[in-house]
Amino acid sequence: MSSDEIRQKYLDFFKKRKHVEISASPLVIDSDPTTLFTSSGMQQLAPYLKGEAHPDGKRLVDIQPSIRMQDLDEVADNRHFSFFEMLGNWSLGDYFKKEQLSWVWEFFTKELELDPARLHVSVFEGNSEVPKDKESFEIWKSIGLPESHIHFYGTDKNWWSRAGTPEKMPVGEIGGPDSELFFEFEKVAHDPKYGKFCHPNCQCGKFLEIGNSVFMQYQKKEDGNLVELPQRNVDFGGGLERMAAAVAGDPDTFRIDLFFGVIKKIESEVGFGYNSDLDKDKSFRIIADHLRTSVNLLSEGVVAGNKLHGYALRRLIRRAMFHFHLLGSGISGGALAHIAEELRKFYPNVDKNWEFIEENLSAEGTRFELALKRGLARLTSAVGRGEEINGQFAFDLYQTEGFPLELTIEILKQNGILFTPEERNAFEGEFEKHKDLSRSSSSGMFKGGLAEASEITTKLHTTTHLLHAGLRQVLGEHIGQKGSHITSERLRFDFSHPQKLSDDEIKKVEDLINLKIRENLPVSSIEMTLPEAVGVGALHFFAEKYGEKVKVYTIGDPEGIWFSKEVCGGPHVTHTGAIGSVKIIKQEKIGAGVVRIYAALG
Ligand code: SER
């Protein structure tokens, strides 16, 4: 069964049971400084789980692409990914345990045709605050599961919230006990590589968690206690990739269709097969995983850089390339993009934006390739001269060329030289020292004091709206925002446009914005629903991320002649005159069809 068939079966199954399909949130979250990426389907639904009415009703189904990058080292096993698709169904105060568990069973045994004898479930054993989940235990029994296949665990395994166990939940966070479903792989039941006496939640890989029904019914209060939410919800999430592996009966999730084309291409690139050596398999998996996450991030307009989302992407691309070196074969940026092209057929958004993705992936790959070449030359000539390669040397190589420590260690190993744990400590020490230095220099960004900085960023925020409207007026309505970022010194604005602006166009945009500043137009906001916002001509992005009510900021007269209307959370200046004047300081083409402009207060 292809992963696409599984997606379709899941959506159809729940639609037949009166669920409405909702669209996924984008992967990139740029409105929350604490979270870079969407990591679960629950993120966009939090207000509705707390009791707000969802416009599409009480039964929802969705497919949420998610990114979890906390522990990239886990990716080397056979079932963890930095990007995955979560199939989800939701009851917002509607059905509860009985329907949910019966449907889970029916879907996995009838639709996916998994052998019931190989399925196990887990149930919450209770703690001092929340009782043992006897109800789920009874439901599973009545469905026909033998007691030996129903396992009780505590809050560390059978409790779900975005923060983890109840103790870790911050005030206001919601969560609840859950009931997980596990598939036991017959293929490895007698393989001595896997644990002999393991249980479903053991990490050896013989059992795979393929779905989780969270009974989202508690909220953390200020006094540290949990209280019941006004409604009892169900939040089910199951990883598509793992479901596909269970259906295939193969515990190695990297053999499913979504990965295997890429694995095959890596095989041709390096000249030997997957599953030939344990260490090498890890590199195959890391490359396949990281490339898939990278193209999905690129498809949302992220470009590699040194901060936030861009840095996460850079790390993924560089780790993928580095693992080619571990496999004994360097790779060019272009060849990397050629391998990733395999993913176009699985992800429509990747296909649609392929030109941009290819250009940026291969450009970042080429940058790293050059850095690696320089680093490699320095390292091998130092080794050749018999120089001592210590922690300081390795750090210098990392700092100046971006040459990863693991690669230094590997190359030394190939030359019969051991990089000792003491030298590793010396490297880490330099690393920490440098981090502290850069932290203090970046806090210097706000040297005028935070109050002053926030005044400047507010002005730049309003300027971003002026720039967006100005670009559309001068260049045309095809201009759409691809990203934006503000520091206390400047704003950065990425937008869709085929080429860089001519000097004349830059001047026209700049003059128009400065005219609007001199006109001292009022800036005001009102709340409305998203369709109303669209109706009044407000620009907006990623519609699915907005709540029921959005704020629309108008520059000019909201009921009469206005220059800009945008859906936005603010804050903004009250009159454009406060901005003073604006200068466009730089522009660059950052990818196929995307131009980046930097502007500062004049
Ligand atoms: N919220 C749960 C999870 O992310 C189930 O969807 O695992």
UniProtKB/TrEMBL annotation:
Enzyme Commission number(s) from the entry: 6.1.1.7
Domain of life: Bacteria
Top-level enzyme category: ligase
Protein biosynthesis keyword on record: yes
UniProt entry keywords in alphabetical sequence: Aminoacyl-tRNA synthetase, ATP-binding, Ligase, Nucleotide-binding, Protein biosynthesis, RNA-binding, tRNA-binding
Gene3D superfamilies in alphabetical order: 3.30.54.20, Bira Bifunctional Protein, Domain 2 (3.30.930.10), Threonyl-trna Synthetase, Chain A, domain 2 (3.30.980.10)
Record organism: Candidatus Woesebacteria bacterium RIFOXYD1_FULL_43_18
Keyword Lipid biosynthesis part of the UniProt annotation: no
PANTHER family for the chain: ALANINE--TRNA LIGASE, CYTOPLASMIC, ALANYL-TRNA SYNTHETASE
Family of the protein in this entry: Belongs to the class-II aminoacyl-tRNA synthetase family.
Protein's UniProt name: alanine--tRNA ligase
Record InterPro entries: aa-tRNA-synth_II/BPL/LPL, Ala-tRNA-lgiase_IIc, Ala-tRNA-ligase_IIc_anticod-bd, Ala-tRNA-synth_IIc_core, Ala-tRNA-synth_IIc_N, Ala-tRNA_ligase, Thr/Ala-tRNA-synth_IIc_edit, tRNA_SAD
